[in-house]
Specification:
Blueprint lengths: L6 E6 L3 H10 L6 E7 L6 H8 L6 E2 L15 E4 L6 H10 L3 E4 L7 H13 L4 E3 L7 H12 L5 E11 L18 H17 L5 E7 L12 E7 L5 E7 L1 E11 L2 E5 L10 E3 L4 E2 L6 H14 L8 H20 L3 E2 L1
Parallel strand pairs: 1-2, 1-4, 2-3, 4-5, 5-6, 7-10
Antiparallel strand pairs: 7-11, 8-9, 8-15, 9-10, 11-12, 12-13, 13-14
Bound molecules: NADPH dihydro-nicotinamide-adenine-dinucleotide phosphate.
Amino acid sequence: PKKREKLGVALVGLGGYATGRLAPGLQLTEHCELRGIVTGSPEKIPLWQQRYQIPDRNVYSYETMHEVANNEEIDIIYVVTPPALHARYSIIGAEAGKHVWCEKPMAMDEQECLSIIDAAEKNRVQLTIGYRMQHEPNTQTIIRYGREETYGAITSVSTGAGYSGAHPDPDNWRRIGRMGGGALYDMGVYPINGARYATGMEPIAVSGRQWSVREEMYSDVDEFTEFTLEFPNGVVAAGETSFGKSTNYLDIDCSDGWYRLRPFQSYSGVQGETSDGTQLPPDPNHQQARQMDNDALAIKENRAPIVPGEDGLADIRIVRAIMESSRTGSRIEL
Ligand code: NDP
């Protein structure tokens, strides 16, 4: 069949995020559309097929997913499983010759991240991580402020992302360390990524502390994590994340003023203000649709995506250093 103009996306893992944000977002995109699904839950198939007109030939299980190699209608696989499975399914997708979009946190450790990057390079496919914020206009504005030193040189960063909630089901992967659960993997990557994109720098040392208050729920993972990132020029970013406290801010202090985004990582309503009274009002567009269109366009035009695999790797390196720092009580040099 002649390839249609839009690129075809297959979602891998039909959970909360795929159902609530990505599939609806793919109804709004110009450069890609939902054409396939990969699921381990047969009972989900009829509803998805009906709602999104997905033909039988584009429905896969994790066991048959590699056969997507023979399916010209699928250009991209988007991995939306628990983090511990991101590497496995991203690599299957790359080896099937498909471009790979992989959700945050990229994978469990640096080795897994590198194996995804390696598989994408070997198979000459694009790899991008599902960080939404770098596609968001106000976020792009503050990235530019940092780069152009609009308010002078950055002197410090303070950032946090967390929600006050609960995961009562003991099988919920967010409670299970080996599945990639815990506040740091789930939410902590937002302030880590935020400190990195705001400063445009990579930290040289990391300190962290992790703990749980509701031990009955979070005995296996962190409910809270606090950390500091030390950047090469002496700038320090203070970060926090949790499952037990609602926080959502990215505050930047500079030699000649300040600016901040509050909230900085919500699906909508990301907005900012600056020390000279500039307002950065919320952008009304569907964030995930914009992200996926940008990423599809990068594939079509054969240019680097906004969030390459290396960006996910850099965050996971910091996540692991924070965990090591908390475990050993020492400052970890990167
Ligand atoms: P859910 O638990 O709601 O869904 C995960 C899905 O993965 C399941 O429904 C299941 O789909 C599939 N899956 C495959 N193997 C397993 C397994 N062993 N255990 C559990 N599920 C499995 O999680 P979310 O949708 O909230 O999160 C999925 C990913 O998306 C995570 O990496 C998360 O960090 C990321 N995410 C990103 C967001 C963002 O803003 N960028 C927001 C929310 C989540 P099936 O039944 O079809 O096989």
